[in-house]
Amino acid sequence: MSLVLQHVSKTYNPRSAHPVRAVRDLDLDVPDGDIIALLGSSGCGKTSTLRMVAGFEDVSEGTITLAGKRIDRLAPARRGVAMAFEGYALYPPLNVEENIGFGLAREGGLRRGTDTRKRVHEVADLLEIGPILDRRPAGLSGGQQQRASLARALARDADLHLLDEPMGQLEPQLRAVLRGRVKALIKARGLTAVLVTHDQTEANAMADRIAVMEGGVLQQYGPPGELRDRPVNLFVATFLGEPPMNALPATVQPGGLRLEDGEGVHLDVPPSALPPVGSKVVFGVRPHRITLGQGRLHATVTSNQWLGDQAHVAMELGDRLIVAVAHQRVAAAVGSRLDFDFREADAHVFDAESGRALLHGNQPA
Amino acid sequence: MERSDTIWRVLRGLALTLVIIFFLFPIFWILLMSFETNEQVLAIPPKLFIHPTLMNYVALLSGKLQTAAGALDITFMRNLWNSVLLSVCSVALSLVLGVPAAYAFARFRFRGGEDIAFTLLSFRFAPPLLVLLPLSLYFQDIGLANTYIGLIWVYQLICLPLILWIVRGYFEDASPDVEYAYRVDGHSWWRAFTRIAIPLAGPGIAAAALLSFIFAWNNFVFALVLASADKQPVTVGALAFVTASGIQYGQIAAAIVLSILPTLALALYAQRWLVEGLSLGAVKG
Amino acid sequence: MSLTIRNLHVAFRRNLVLDDVSLDVAPGETLVLFGPSGVGKTVLLRAIAGVEPAARGQVLIDGRDVSALGPDRRDLGMAFQNFALYPHLAARENIASPLRARGVASAEIEARVGRVAELLRISHVLDHPPRALSNGQKQRTALARALVGQPRVLLLDDPLRNVDAKLRYEMRLELPRLLRAAEAATIYVTQDYREAMALGDRIAVLHRAAIAQCDIPEAVYDAPVSVNVARLFGDPPLNLLPCRPVAEAGGLRVEAAGLRLLLPAAREAAGRDCLLGLRPETITVSRAAGGGAGTVRPAGAGGAGVPVEIVAATPLHERMVLLLRAAGGVELLASVLGEPPQGVPVVLQADEQRALLFDAESGARIPHVARTLEVVA
What we know:
- Chain A has helices at residues 46-54, 96-106, 116-126, 142-155, 172-189, 200-206, 224-229, 234-239; strands at residues 3-12, 20-30, 35-39, 61-66, 69-70, 81-84, 160-164, 193-197, 209-214, 217-222, 246-253, 256-259, 264-266, 280-285, 290-306, 311-317, 320-326, 337-342, 347-351, 357-360, 363-364.
- Chain A has 365 residues and is α+β, with helices and mostly antiparallel strands.
- Chain A is globular, with a radius of gyration of 24 Å.
- At the A-C interface, helix 5, helix 6, strand 15 and strand 17 of A face helix 5, helix 6, helix 7, strand 17 and strand 19 of C.
């Protein structure tokens, strides 16, 4: 079901000398059947937001609506929300099967046509915990407990599924497979889910839309491709991407930009889209969008790392490093000069002071 | 179930008030009594509005108690001094012995370590009266009866287990990595203990010291049996007000107020310090 | 200024955490100690530092046996995963600690702390206590403390684990230069295989309390000694398919998940139970009808296309990770460049030259015959 947050704020210790404003004036609209990710580093406000939706924290200001009904004053149990906890929160006296079935039993069984046992086994097999269904949580590894907790949330037919760092404890091998399977399950059952994570790989892999938060403020909310190609500010631009976007200080000059070390970068853009000549800006280009071996620019290679399926090449441009990613090995020794280039469509320009995006490629932001 | 914030707030306030009255009323009543004469204390029905008098305090501080049967000498100020001396010295000795021991129990696994730690804690389980009789006999034999040193020694039964177990918890909570880092930097283990471990466990050590000070201060039974009048603390000294001509409630109340003051002052001072120490933070990165 | 570890054993209660570990690190070399969590990487580092007692074995620094010495007398620099800064001291005093221990004169301490702080770009926060530092600054302070004494051996315990992606990549580029300049024998612990490949001159893979393989990054990735080592490298991870190869002219014929591959592998594996290892980036997915709109087949891709169903497509750093289901319900991961074909039947193909074959029982890799190693620039 669709979830709508309007002007939601959370302030801890509002009357003290140092109130903590964990979430500020958050507007978020999650359409029915979408998976969205709240992404940010620790302390960005994503967990406070999740806890307000779940009902573990009061909302300081604003409203939360789920399936057209205001829920921000309801007790957690009455909100129609299922949650997978980062700390698992399994019931110790119950075995895994009973843990997974617990939420279903509390709901008064499943909706017509499905039986509880079948649903539990279905989800357990999907998450590869079928063989441990009769074990108690105390004897399980962190990864197994985490999958049991995730299974408990996914087995339910809730209006909204909240997943708080649901795969952080899993081995990378399993994580890669389960991301795909869980996404397919959520889509097949038409569930609506909010995923909270600090791992951009997970957010990119699973979410239809990503909400990037920082300092309690929503920075940008959109599909992964939009965040990658049209970041609204320098924070989003350099927060996302592995390796992150190259950001180099530059000055506007007639018909283009000049990088601070003197390299001229010509940008064929409508003059109205750039600030006046002489303005300080930040020029950005993603490492994956740099082509190596030929081009208008050249720099000295400072490192050339082959990672099995991709090469990361760092080059010294003035006193800044610029990083490029290639999908084959790059024949360039450390210390040698390397030519490189990028398409103008892949260039980004940000205001140096506010960090606001001015240009993406040759289109105004 | 729509819940109303206003009703909750009122209910919460009401409950808090009840709890506060329950705990603070006896103290308030004692404070009131300390400013009344014995006659006023014993008046029925008791009066809330009184003409305060300072005579109880004057009597305590001057050491002269005027009763119906004549003037009595009282040693309250001496008792107060004894309390301070015994408590401070006991806690100090416990810290010197207990903090290194707590560190050892927290950081090193050695044969019988858990058993020794538990035995020390079990001193707190034994009823004091059980050990008092043999203890007083031995003390008389070896000449420790009625000495400060003897009392301080016995007070270790109260202070040492407390300090050991509280401080051990604090050492265990602090990551040993910080000490390892200091060792790798090239410092000896003794410097790592004194420059890193102790400052980081500071709040815990202060809390344990404060608690054991209060326990030592309030001890009654050990001092009653093992010390005579000139070495007795205030808890025992207050017995002097149960005189032949009646119980001097006013003076007892004033004595209680005066003997609470040092612990209260210490607690308030340490509280500020404790909060400061706890916000040191960043131990776990 | 080399570090040598000889036959080190470490046990907790009766469990052997490290079983007969031997390593050599040359001066100026960075050896990455890599393995999954809980495998004993940190224990090994601590045993070298002397804060964890070793049951048996020797640690030699510059040929001198330091096994019996305390951590304060081994001349090491160490950075901890949780930073382990002294919370009651300012960043400056944190960094100065190794110099104070040696009784270096105050003026020189000032100068050396200033130099290393400038190198790590934390000069402006030297007077702040650790709690006022950001995670990145804490991590740089911890590194500065490890480097300031110019130790002969540097031990870095997953120093980039607790910082965000942006800082991690910055440091990944900066660290090699810093470590080269330090000229110490460095052991760097990580559980991120990309970090291991990026930073290591060599990688020592720790598995089940012992070193499974110790080699240059390319060799560990392309020629892992066992299936256990192979599984630790790659994101998305290696696909493993049970198979029983048959000897044929030109190599081994392997059939799995509908694929028929001719591998240039040694023939003695014929008839044995094996595991076929396919790296996701060596699998290509294209339109079934042979139309040109699919992704390009890499050179050496062999075998006829196998019809598969795309269960899920998840983006991963400019690539798409496809969860594929072949006949019989076998699931495979493929990592492709560009958008996968949608709404049409697709087939997968695998690169025979880069396929790995393991003995199912022992897990050992069955080597290629005359394997043509690609030239490394």
